[in-house]
Write a structure and sequence with these properties.
Elements lengths: L6 E4 L3 H9 L6 E2 L14 H17 L8 E11 L2 E2 L6 H11 L3 E11 L5 E12 L4 H10 L19 E5 L2 H5 L3 H10 L7
């Protein structure tokens, strides 16, 4: 089987890299895109995730003179209603997010954009609904003390201790981690990526 063209992951997230490897995709390069992630006024969460996925893909593709390559960009947004929750930069932000999510259902959106050789593109936004239990103060304190919230959208990482705080999930689990694997694999296949048997 002929080798695939190089694939560049337009993300510095170790979680996205691990997820890609889980389905047998090994990027030839990883480049962190530098884009402004500030939501626009009245921008809906799904539109925000889609826009940033495209912006990250284009930012990294613009640095690559070789057009015979794939570039994959993604952005994950945690939303409570129409409100986009921030990435937790400190414990106070994480605490505010978790208190907002406590006892409620929220949505996680990931925008995925793939640029293929020849300038072909494919994109999707995937939504997963997540329901948190009502958090007792000791549960909240223990999670904040764990430090897992650092840099995470909405102040939690489902692939860690936060899974004990989640009552239900409807949709793709890997989407909440940061990359919906089934959709990503389908987009790659549709653009000509050949998965090893």
């Amino acid at each position: 089987m002929p080798a695939n063209p190089p694939l560049i992951l337009a993300s510095s997230s170790p979680r996205r890299l691990a997820l890609l490897r889980q389905i047998g995709v090994e990027p030839s390069a990883i480049e962190g895109p530098e884009v402004d992630e500030t939501p626009r006024p009245r921008e809906l969460p799904s539109a925000h995730a889609s826009r940033l996925a495209a912006a990250k893909t284009d930012a990294v593709a613009g640095r690559q003179p070789d057009a015979a390559r794939f570039v994959l960009g993604a952005d994950t947004v945690v939303a409570c209603g129409r409100r986009i929750l921030p990435k937790a930069t400190d414990a106070a932000v994480a605490e505010r997010c978790l208190k907002l999510l406590s006892g409620r259902r929220h949505r996680v959106y990931t925008g995925v954009m793939i640029l293929a050789p020849g300038g072909r593109r494919a994109a999707r936004v995937v939504m997963t609904a997540v329901r948190f239990k009502r958090l007792a103060s000791d549960e909240l304190d223990a999670y904040l003390a764990s430090g897992e919230w650092q840099g995470k959208a909405g102040g939690y990482a489902i692939q860690g201790r936060a899974e004990a705080l989640i009552l239900a999930i409807n949709g793709s689990w890997s989407n909440v981690v940061g990359l919906p694997l089934a959709v990503t694999a389908d987009l790659l296949r549709g653009l000509g990526w050949r998965f090893a048997p």
